[in-house]
């Protein structure tokens, strides 16, 4: 019996936000039932068939009965779908204005009334657009909105909306906390796991249209015929869902699998090797997206091994894929142990001089912050600094530095903070969102990538709430101006329940969760003080790693005089990499937002914050606040048992308990450690640590996942 329940729950968790539960509000249900009696699909493509099937499946769940999928197009209360060019002339005429306003992946959903006949039309310029429209329509029902008089036009603002899987060929996932890789290389190409199809469907439902299926720390074998055959099989599965496959390219592949003596981008043989390789890939996968490259970063090979630079490397690959319409995404995540300058400055210093020098089909992929996916980072100074080069955003959806898949952290809140940041590159209002959607500098290629948090766990993402991060990433990739609040609410309604008594408190809990993790891990601008290697738990004391910038002590610089990294004009002068307005704001302690204070300034323990408290007291109180916030999340969740199935309810409960325990661990370990330097008592309101600093230092996690 119990086994039965568990299997059922696992199936539900597996369905993600596409639950399609029967609408419980009878008034709304009535409205839907009378408005939709049948479906008529124009067109016969695989994508239209998928869209049609999705509607049938979704509607039969939501409405509680089967819907006829071959109704005559002229019948009233029919849901009509198809691309513009397939529609009847009347319908075409009727939506001319709307369809003119959408782009190739956009869609129109419109109520059409003539006489006694009322229909809902879902149309687009492409089949994929129709599929997106169908998912959007189903979302309206899943979130109980009225479909009385629909007039929706929507288009994605960013062209390339992709996941980056850091999946290795042995199926381990770098920084993956939800099991092993989805890709079963050994059984591919013949065996198509249902999971590949479900993966594509889930991505299509949020508009994701690209996937890099292998790790940025690349293995050249992926480019051999043995593996390309398997990649081809995956591409075939993803294609009707509007998803293109991309691969990471190991720069030294010409040597490793091509038997050449060099990978020098100036070498004609090398150039030819890549051209041939591109031709070979495109022969198999005509819509192959292109390459993602991590070069001369953290030990990966690259053009600099041959005395060339990033432009030389990127352009060589760009030339190889250009004849086929492919692109190269060249990562800017570079820093060197041989460069004594502040790590936060290095990517900017290296890349900005190359502005305008890359080929048209190169896009530079930049992480949201200048260090590395921390709970909070100021936006990367490269955004706004390279107007002649398209820059794409790289967010991390997997929680490498944010508690793995154990802690509940709603990441769209973080993404939104970055996207809304004003770079001032062309005056006030030059937000990061406007840079990556190409609107500020008029770029044609635009992109956004999320490092996936997906593995073969039954629920895909490990933590049930981590599904919201995948979902929310997709939504913001489609529209980087959306409010993370709306996204959280939609996700909750689609995944769990439409009950207000559930939505309101749980949404609040999600929205608060990001600030909570900042508070109990790295308040007031602290960063990279996680334990080393695996990055789980606190390790502010670590100082023995070979590369200075891998040590937490490099980042917090705590000493008797104070704490924080001086990146102001009196320090590393990283502030100068921002536009003057922003630089000035960060540079001055009086105007620097307190949330970023220790990112930019080294301040004495007695420094007074705006609340009148000393820095030491404020820091301690922030750590305590983080713990309290998690306690409150626990309290909220404990009253939600009626709205969630038993198993996920208990799972989240157990996970929140761990999170609470670990928030205290973070607070106690960090405060005990910093107290050695501040020499001050903990302020009132901060709980006394229950363990010693040496106990916290002794904790080791040799088999931490994802490492
Ligand atoms: C860091 C990860 C490392 C990745 C690297 C990257 O610790 O595993 O390879 O980023 O983005 O966050 O290349």
TrEMBL record:
Active site: 298 (proton donor), 372 (proton acceptor), 400 (proton acceptor)
Xref: PANTHER family: ALPHA-GLUCURONIDASE A
Coiled coil spans: none
Protein family according to the UniProt entry: Belongs to the glycosyl hydrolase 67 family.
Domain of life: Bacteria
This protein's name: Xylan alpha-1,2-glucuronidase
GO cellular component: extracellular region
Domain Glycosyl hydrolase family 67 C-terminal, chain residue ranges per copy: 461-686
Catalytic activity: Hydrolysis of (1->2)-alpha-D-(4-O-methyl)glucuronosyl links in the main chain of hardwood xylans
Annotated EC: 3.2.1.131
Subunit record text: Homodimer.
Domain Alpha glucuronidase N-terminal: 16-137
Keyword terms, alphabetized: Carbohydrate metabolism, Glycosidase, Hydrolase, Polysaccharide degradation, Xylan degradation
Matches recorded under Gene3D superfamilies: Alpha-glucuronidase, C-terminal domain, Chitobiase/beta-hexosaminidase domain 2-like, Glycosidases
Keyword Cytoplasm: no
Gene Ontology biological process terms in this record: glucuronoxylan catabolic process
GO molecular function, one term: alpha-glucuronidase activity
